[in-house]
């Protein structure tokens, strides 16, 4: 079974699968507390970062792919992501030195539109690593995964223009 189809059936439909013989998917999603994925046992490597940004964890991603032969990556952005436009005012609660240190670094990790971001990053990973990379959007409102269409995701109002 296609690992993306398996992901959608397991999470969205709540279908049970027996533990897999070996991992078939590498999934990158946001560290947000509202994301709770239902995954079969032994199915996926999961990397969580702010905004589902694969860049800071790419060495882990590449190593896992090389070591296991997994050829499919799911990039799962989500609605209402705090890394879209980070609220740098929140950093005022940090001690002076830390605020100055982290403000530019956090600002530089802004992802903008979460759906457009994972679509773009998926294309970059495919081009750079030669793997299949599939962008998805996790709707925290309903806890459902939507498979994004690249073209639709780049249009305004993309959040509703998804399939699968
Ligand atoms: Zn997020």
Summarize this structure as a short list of keywords or feature phrases.
alpha/beta, 6-stranded mixed sheet, 5 helices, 21% strand, disordered C terminus, binds zinc ion
Blueprint (SSEs and pairs):
Layout: H1 3-13, E1 25-30, E2 44-49, H2 58-68, E3 72-78, H3 96-107, H4 114-129, E4 132-139, E5 144-148, H5 150-154, E6 162-163
Parallel strand pairs: 1-2, 1-3, 3-4
Antiparallel strand pairs: 4-5, 5-6
The structure holds zinc ion.
Zinc ion binds at residues 30, 32, 51, 78, 81-83.
What would you say this structure looks like, in words?
There is one protein chain. The protein contains five helices and six strands, in the order αββαβααββαβ. It is globular and about 50 Å long. It has a single domain (3-163), classed as Carbonic anhydrase (Beta-carbonic Anhydrase, Chain A, 3-Layer(aba) Sandwich). Strands 2-1-3-4-5-6 form a six-stranded mixed beta sheet, sandwiched between helices. Mean pLDDT is 92; it is low at 150-164. It is 34% helix and 21% strand. Zinc ion binds at residues 30, 32, 51, 78, 81-83.
Distance between the termini: 15 Å
| Residue runs with pLDDT of under 50 for 5 or more positions | 150-164
| N-to-C SSE string, H for helix and E for strand | HEEHEHHEEHE
Can you count the helices? 5
CATH T-level fold name: Beta-carbonic Anhydrase, Chain A
């Amino acid at each position: 079974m296609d690992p993306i189809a398996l992901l959608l059936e397991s999470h969205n439909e709540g279908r049970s699968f027996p533990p897999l013989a070996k991992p078939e998917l590498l999934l990158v999603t946001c560290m947000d507390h509202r994301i709770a994925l239902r995954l079969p046992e032994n199915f996926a490597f999961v990397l969580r970062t702010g905004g589902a940004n694969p860049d800071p964890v790419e060495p882990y991603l590449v190593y896992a792919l090389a070591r296991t032969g997994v050829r499919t990556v799911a990039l799962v952005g989500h609605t209402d992501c705090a890394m879209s436009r980070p609220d740098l005012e929140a950093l005022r609660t940090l001690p002076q030195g830390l605020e100055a240190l982290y403000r530019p670094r956090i600002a530089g990790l802004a992802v903008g539109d979460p759906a457009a971001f994972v679509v773009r990053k998926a294309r970059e990973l495919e081009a750079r690593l030669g793997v299949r990379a599939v962008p998805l959007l996790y709707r925290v409102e309903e806890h459902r995964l939507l498979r994004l269409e690249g073209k639709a995701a780049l249009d305004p109002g993309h959040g509703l223009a998804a399939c699968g």
